[in-house]
DNA sequence: ATAGAATATTCTTGTCAAAGAATATTCTAT
DNA sequence: ATAGAATATTCTTTGACAAGAATATTCTAT
């Protein structure tokens, strides 16, 4: 169900959150500050990322520290690798395919 | 601008289109049939995928044959690989981290 | 030139999701 | 126990986008 991951990443604040988490974990309020949004929105976005399995929580006192969940990135990597024939093995096949269909075209290619 | 790619893939029909294109190129009407949607929606979805740079058109007579654009998948692959330290180099660090924080989680792990 | 095939565009409607605002919950000090 | 800090939830409003419906455009045969 990789589409849940795409939906989670299709929002600017959440994409930013994920990229910030590449450096280190952050708390909810830290995200609110870094993204210049209010705390409730930060909570909501983190909840969505959490439900998408991209993030997990680490409770320290009242603070909820969020970190990246490698698992979901693994799956995403696998999904993309299922397309890897596009730019690896079949680069020649693609070329021949284009060459083959070129004659069917009106010269705009 | 990888977020445009995520937005494009965050819709079930478009995700399906991309996965169908993994096999071979298709025309607009073929997508409409395969996805059981009407032709205009197929056109619109393909337009969005095209504007996101994930797909390119090959005009054959009146038919518009759509194929995957490897470039965008390359970029997506690069984006994900920028997170690769998550599941490669630091697998041991992650393991000890999880071991340390496991008691704070809700048991779904 | 005309008809038909294939695709694209426009406009409207309905739905879902993000933001705002207020409040609730949870935890920790004292 | 209580106050305050940190986070979560609820409700409403707003905006974006997908679907529907109708029509327009483009191209190809004849």
Secondary structure layout plus pairing:
The structure is a homodimer of 109-residue chains.
Chain A: H1 2-9, H2 12-21, E1 26-27, H3 28-35, H4 39-51, E2 55-60, E3 63-68, H5 70-81, H6 91-102
Antiparallel strand pairs in A: 1-3, 2-3
The structure holds a DNA duplex (30 and 30 nucleotides).
Entry keywords:
homodimer, 109 residues, alpha+beta, Arc Repressor Mutant, subunit A, 3-stranded antiparallel β-sheet, disordered C terminus, DNA-binding
According to CATH, what is the class of chain A?
A: Mainly Alpha
Outline the biggest β-sheet of chain A: 3 strands, antiparallel
* Amino-to-carboxy terminus distance of chain A: 37 Å
Count of alpha and pi helical runs of chain A: 6
Q: What is the architecture of chain A at the second tier of CATH?
A: Orthogonal Bundle
Order of SSEs of chain A: HHEHHEEHH
Rg over CA atoms of chain A: 20 Å
Strand content of chain A: 5-15%
Give the CATH topology of chain A.
Arc Repressor Mutant, subunit A
Number of domains of chain A: 1
Strand order of the largest sheet of chain A: 1-3-2
Structural class of chain A: alpha+beta
Tell me the helix content of chain A. 55-70%
**Largest interface, chains and sizes:** A-B, 36 and 33 residues
Poorly predicted tracts of residues of chain A: 102-109
Full CATH superfamily name of chain A: Winged helix-like DNA-binding domain superfamily/Winged helix DNA-binding domain
